[in-house]
Amino acid sequence: MHLKKLSFLAVLLLSLGLTGCGSDNLDTVSSDNSDGSGDTSDNMSDNSDDTIYTASGNFTPKIIQRGQTFTFNYYLDKTPDAAVIYDIDIVGTAIQGTSEDYTISNASTLTFAKGSTTTNLTITTYQKEDVYDARTLSLTFTGNTGEPATINLLISGNVYLNDTGITHYSDGSSFDIQTQTNDKYKQQDAAYGLDIIINSAATEPDTGDSKDDTKQLYKNAFDVNPSDSEYKGKAGFRFVKMHDNGMALSASSTNHSCVKDEVTGLIWQVKSTYNTLSNVELDPTLPANYQMADARRYQASNFSYPWKASALSGVGPGWQNGRVNNGAFIPEDNLLANRNCGYNSGFTGRDFDLYCSSGSYANETNFLKICGQSNWVVPTVEQLRSIINYEKVTDYADLVANKHGLDETFFDCPPGDCVIANNSLQDPLYWTSSSVKGAEGLAWCINLENGAVQTCNKREYHKVLVVSSNVPAEFFNPNSDNSTVTD
């Protein structure tokens, strides 16, 4: 796999499920929609003859790639007899300037000339190699009357994708050949990508990419040593453990709640060890009364959930919640647990209903602000696949020892397995937020035991691993779901 630096928009489109897996053409320019979707017409202004004008435009959040130009068009409902002026207020993390993030044609006012019902402003963005995060830009237009109208923009950063983790070659029967033989395996994945370019422990190929210690993500001797406190993970992966307060921890720490992927910038909540759910109601004539052995560990690796959209991600009807004894389960009002999952009953003040569902789990992590984050979502197919080390799953005979394709140093916790619980229901399937196009009752899920992507019925119970990124919440809500996966 070649090293690719993708625009933030390309990665976001993947995260929203709008492009198929394996696509090589991921560059897409965001521009103002011409169909009027997202139109807002609350902003009004008057002029000297006391005529009231209503202005409208497409205020759907937009993403602008660096090096591109975005034009915002504004329209009046009637032809003005004199100039109509709207004030512009600009806020956000983006910095204005030709050597910074962007320049704007109209920085303080937007004017409709006499006799014209249209006007616009243009934003030009600039390439910056040292910017790895997306930056926000919000423009608010205010007239003399009516409510202000705001458009939220996101200027892309420079985002990398993880490689597959494969550093060995294969002849079709063996999967652990460590060196080339007369360029016999020169087209294989082990000769290309992050694993070679940034990993000083990877085997130098006879033909393919070469190691480059000038790369920003190059791994030194400490980063590749599993016994060192600065260890980052295998192959080209760069993981860092995080405490629940958001602070970074050493690789040897055992009290981490999250893992940050330094290559993609994504943060993952880790699962906890097996947590027993028991019916403590002794009277068979009364409803079941389930309790968790550890009332705090709602993120236990053995808990499972049917699919349902969360507040921030997962477009579509999803799984329709039922009540107890009606084919589905909702946590009891007081104990917040049932035979499949549970929540911490020590917290109150939620403004959402708790269900045993993937979306409800994501909502709960946002309510608790795990690791200081409040934009947790169920991952897309590409997001979840990005942390799988496929070298661990290529040799199926080795699955008994490995159990899953994630880095056990960061995603497991001693003494138990925190990815695929060691119990009678060793389900390796994890939900993604991506629905299957043309099949509302199906969503894509990933088998972390072998890395396979497959479809799952939304009523099935599977596991959830949530992810957080620096994308503002308003960009997580597309109008429709066109998710699909192709091989």
TrEMBL record:
Which stretches does UniProt call biased (Low complexity)?
Answer: 30-46
- Ranges of residues in domain Lcl C-terminal: 258-467
The alphabetical list of record keywords is:
Signal
Q: Which InterPro entries match?
A: Lcl_C (IPR011460)
Region annotated Disordered, chain positions: 28-48
**UniProt signal peptide:** 1-20
> What name does the UniProt record give this protein?
Lcl C-terminal domain-containing protein
